[in-house]
Queue: 2 jobs
Job 1
Amino acid sequence: MIRFIVRRLLQLIPTLFGLSILLFIWLRRLPGGPETAILGERGTPELRAQIRKNLGLDEPLLIQYGRFMKRMLKLDLGTSISTKREVMTEFLERFPGTVELTITAMIIAIGVGIPLGYLAARRRGSFLDSASVGGSLIGICVPVFFLAYVLKAIFSENLQLFPSSGRQDPTLGATRITNFFVLDGLMTREWDAALDALWHLILPGIALASIPLAIIVRITRASVLEVLSEDYVRTAQSKGLNERTIRGRHILRNAMLPIVTVIGLLTGGLLSGAVLTETVFAFSGIGAFLYEAISNRDYPVLMGFIMIIAVFYVLVNLLVDVSYSLIDPRVRVR
Amino acid sequence: MSTKTDKIDRLGELTAAKQDEHGVSLWTEAFRRVRRNPTALVGIAILVIFVLVAIIGPWVAPYSPTDFIGKGEVRSGQGIIPGPSAEHWLGYDHQGRDELSRLLVGARQTLLVGIISTLIGLTIGALVGGIAGAAAGLGGRVGRAVDSVLMRIVDMLLALPSLLLAVSIAALLGASLTTVMIAVGVVSVPIFARLLRGAMVAQANSDYVLAATSLGVKRTKIAIGHILPNSLAPVIVQATLTLATAIIEAAALSFLGLGNPDSATPEWGLMLAEAQRFLDIRPGLAIYPALGIIITALGFTLLGEAMREALDPKLRK
């Protein structure tokens, strides 16, 4: 098991190395080059030349790349143009928000998706089945940002059930420890703060969950249907095992592998949705900040965030592979 | 050449197959199944209407989509955008242009965005995946090396969440509709590459490849003439599904401000993105293009799913 993980970690090195080259080239190819990225549009030719010299842009590419990598390894991602703060600081401050949102979305998607997909498969052809298949087909086709706006308009602006923006009511004056607002509230026993933070997560969480939910329902349904036709399920039924055991040990466990794959892929992909959802709900996570960075052409932030997210994404995929071998012993052999 | 044909004839004799006996091809069979599948028919119906609107839209549009005919009546700053009326069925957009005309004309651009970005992804992806698949399936040690280098590059593209990859490309190329199409297309490259490679590697182990190899058919010919055509089904299904996601992703990029900065030429994604600012005043401006996108995407998805089912050999009778 440990050998498997180590081998997978080693395989990450060439991927990340290639990615760093891509990003390096990318930054150099941006319209106006890095000096525009730092100065914005207002730099004079003298200032530009000065910056090119300071950044060592007049030196050979290989040396430049070496320096770039050295900074990357020291986790020095430069300074944001718009906020004048370290990119890493900005990231660490906002990342907890996105993690909270992603977890909420995944809890909704998995908590609703797997039971729904399972029931749809067990009652194939029923109304529930057609409704969940149809619903999931439509769910994939709705643009996330549009759904977010619709949810916001209905549930927060018209019905006033949920807050329309932010991560927490600032008037609560909640204590910050980890920047995970829900966790902070629980740790400091400020229950109202925790509840309020949770309340702020529901609508963006649902919007973000829509696509993963749709996909999980369909994969679960397909996977369960396939397992249901296996001989061992019939054997289990005919030897009189109770429904719960058959469901847990025979059907779900065997149906789980494709579901876990998809969940892993979706978790990484949620970051894409987070950019859109966080923007609509003015939810201060990395997604909303990325949106600002795009509109401000804040290239250091864009590049730094993309790099960190890529590493994170790759690690999530590693976790998925590891969880495979926990679920299915056959994978371990390979 | 004739010796090979002789060999094949002799093979036929050996297996005692009748001269004129032949099964229905996978595609004929799949086409028949798609035709009998009600969901597929719904999908096709949606797409026929969509393509029809895309073609004839500019001619049936009651007004010019770029004329600010209602400019005098629209005060979007003060929250005044006139709604539907007898002359303007869906009202004006935020700049006083006829919304219905823009929707009708915009279908063409939307279809174009979907098709071109899918074609970009399909072409590059199939090329990379096809070479990797052929190399892996047939090429021995060198082939495996080629395959693994190509696939590592594909993995690198997959290491970025799709929207961020698209954003990086868009930052490089500047905001425009072409950028959106390239960005959305590149995002789907790794998917196509992996699918085709996977299918080709699986096909490389089948009996007909062994038979062709033992008959002395050249390896490149086996790869192109035998393995490739038998591996295309999942790629074509994916292309249909990608048409749906491409239109949705293009809308998301427009929403992030990476789409065409000039809104003169109507496109549903761009219209939806722009209308978000006026959601409180006239939600319809967002709802119409959104419905257009959702229904169109649904059409492609339904057709794609039906094709997937129809082409699945496991379901063949």
Note: The radius of gyration of chain B is 25 Å.
Job 2
Amino acid sequence: MTVSLAEWLMDDRPASRRQAVLGNLYRGMRAIIANPAALAGLIIILLLVAVAIFAPVLALGRSPFAQDLAQRLAAPSAVHWLGTDELGRDIYARTLYGARVTLTIVFLVSIIVAPIGLAVGTLAGYLGGWVDRVLMRITDVFLAFPRLVLALAFAAALGPGIENAVIAISLTAWPPYARIARAETITIAGSDFIQVVVLQGASTLRILFRHVVPLCLSSVIVRLTLDMAGIILTAAGLGFLGLGAQPPTPEWGAMVSAGREVILDQWWVATIPGIAIFIVSLGFNLLGDGLRDVFDPKAER
Amino acid sequence: MERGAWRGWGQGLAAVIRPLIALAGSLLITFIGLTAVTFFIGRLTKIDPVLAVVGDKASREVYNNAYIALGLDRPVIVQYFLYLKRVVTGDLGVSVLTSQPVISDLLRVFPATFELATIAIIIGVLVGVPAGVLAGARKGRLADHIVRVTGLFGYSVPVFWLGLVGLFVFYGKLGWVSGTGRLDVFYEDIVTVRTGIILIDSAIEGEWDIFFNAFSHLILPAAILGYYSLAYIARMTRSFMIDQLAQEYVTTARVKGRSFWGAVWLHAFPNIMVPLITVIGLSYASLLEGALLTETVFAWPGLGLYITRALFNSDMNAVMGGTILIGTVFISINLFSDFLYRIFDPRLRTA
């Protein structure tokens, strides 16, 4: 008997772990595609990735770094589609390459924040007792802080630069993930299959890594998508203040800042990169809202 | 008075005092956490605190004396407690940039931020609450979609960029508002500083020209900042409203002859006021953060501009002092709105 791929994926009694995982992914994808807003968000993010990868091709030979002082602050034209900045650099090319910077920040913050949140949350939730109380107190304290101000202070102390901006954002962004992971862990730890694994003699670390963490991942990823817009806006804010990526890196926030002085006369210098920031964070917001509706219909707000 | 009545009073008092103690406790712990983090940040920085005091031309001996005077030879934990003691007594060090104690600088610039954030939250509440009620009551209709999309834009657009575009359109092209700063140059330093809030100070002296000039400077940054709280307030109001309108008492009121909007405003709305207090408190606190970037764009001489200026002059005392002030106000508003919520909502009064 042959089964189509779709049937194999939708099988409610998967024969292997791989089939189960792929099946879940497939169901998730179908749910997202059925939700127009989420689909729009997904498309925007895929476009962002595509732009980042193919920036040199899309720039059609324009360099994001080449200065042409004779052409500084030129209005959009056939040569410079989106005009030039204060050093005569092509804004179209710089905006395209800026996608790489934004994606790098997003990626780095995610791989720092999610593991920290998962580690703190699962440990607190699984061990309980004083470990839980201490870890959650620390989490609450961090949660009560104003994020941008704290990231600013961290970035100021560490010195400007993209790596330090990433560290500063991560240091202030992990608490919600610890909260989520803890709540999930408490539910999971009470279930029968964990009792079985405990009876089989699995170590705490093995239980956490092999059984608890994988089950927390989906909530953490949904939350990460929802927060991504905020992370991008914070990163852009740091860049705008001069604490993020340093010149000549084409970072969108810093590019908006460069256009500040000339906003009344050469509006395109600040406006174009700002639109890029807006579109990308809109994409993450749309996808995040959609993912939440799919995975957690109760939280509809 | 009867005994029962006294007991009722006692319970009522306990219902207020218990959360009050809890409030004080969380305030204290969070404040200690905040100072620990700023202390830690202060140690992270590569700027030598001794050189910041004595200057880089100091002799070895002067340097060593300052090193000891600053307590840098003591264990870290002792240093932290010394730091905490100074912070609590209001000693945030001296700003390198202004040569003034940081605390007096902060008190001088704070009213400007307060004025901006307050006008912004008024805009956010006056527009956001009715918009949220409308969207919730007309769920799935056109009005709902408009409110949701407006809110979604608010979550996605960078505040500093919106500020610049606002300046370009409303100041540069249309000329409806005044540009950056709090006042036109020729109006500056005329009104005596009483509260530091120009709208109030100029009204007291009857300087209406200055009042309107200040207002035309204030309205754009306040509206932009207010837009962000509006997005959040409208979204939350909408979801509270949807929850309430699904309740049976609303149906009962309708059956008894109340009009639809009568049921919305007279029956459902009073029930969402309590959670709304928390939401408004939260967005007021986050306005302080938004003010940081908005002030930079509009050259608004408040806390945000003070901190960002200090950043670029490696004036760490000023940066840390500003962080502590914003952090403390932020934490206090957050915890206080949580406290109000507990007082007003009998269901949350845990025994």
Note: Chain B touches chain A through 54 residues (CB under 8 Å).
